[in-house]
Specification:
Layout (H helix, E strand, L loop, with lengths): L2 E7 L4 E7 L2 H12 L9 E6 L13 E4 L22 H8 L19 H12 L2 H8 L3 H8 L7 H14 L1
Antiparallel strand pairs: 1-2, 1-3, 3-4
Helix pairs in contact: 3-4, 4-5
């Protein structure tokens, strides 16, 4: 089962093409593609295709974002929380053609009184997945899962600060 992320020219030529084994890896790659500033204004599109038959019976791209359009007028921002690898074509088209409203204020994870395991789980949900959370904190997924399971973290203070700073920069 392959999740596909492509950069496509307006004429239909595929300029970049990559396949991923998991939806979270594919969505991370798609967000990275959407964030490439050198493509803004170009007659190109970022394309996200789930495996055939998983979301729809057709082999149609679910997410399609044009770099030559304004955000919300055919283009999707890389930080848009509405991006979902399992979204159907109608939902994806709605997101591409609707501007993102104001984002909520970032959470101060350093001041959060909850145990570190609960904070890790909540932050992973906020950034999209445990894979994404481990990536942002530059730790292995196994380490992050351990933190979520309540294992001690000598770097808890540093991790909480990175969570807070990451949210503020996003």
């Amino acid at each position: 089962m392959s999740w596909i992320v492509r950069l496509r020219a307006q004429e239909g030529d595929i300029l970049e093409n990559a396949s991923y084994g998991t939806p979270s890896a594919a969505m991370s790659a798609y967000r990275a593609l959407l964030g490439r500033q050198e493509l803004v204004g170009q007659h190109m599109a970022a394309v996200f295709k789930p495996p055939r038959g998983l979301v729809t019976q057709s082999n149609t791209s679910t997410w399609f974002s044009r770099f030559d359009r304004e955000l919300g007028a055919g283009r999707i921002g890389p930080d848009d929380p509405r991006l979902d690898p399992y979204a159907d074509e109608t939902t994806a088209a709605s997101v591409a053609n609707t501007p993102l409203g104001p984002l909520p204020e970032p959470i101060d994870w350093e001041a959060d009184p909850r145990p570190f395991a609960e904070v890790c789980k909540a932050w992973a949900k906020a950034v999209g997945s445990r894979d994404a959370a481990a990536h942002w904190l530059r730790v292995s997924r196994k380490t992050f899962d351990g933190w979520c399971d309540g294992r001690g973290a000598s770097q808890e203070k540093m991790a909480r600060r990175l969570m807070t700073l990451t949210d503020r920069l996003a």
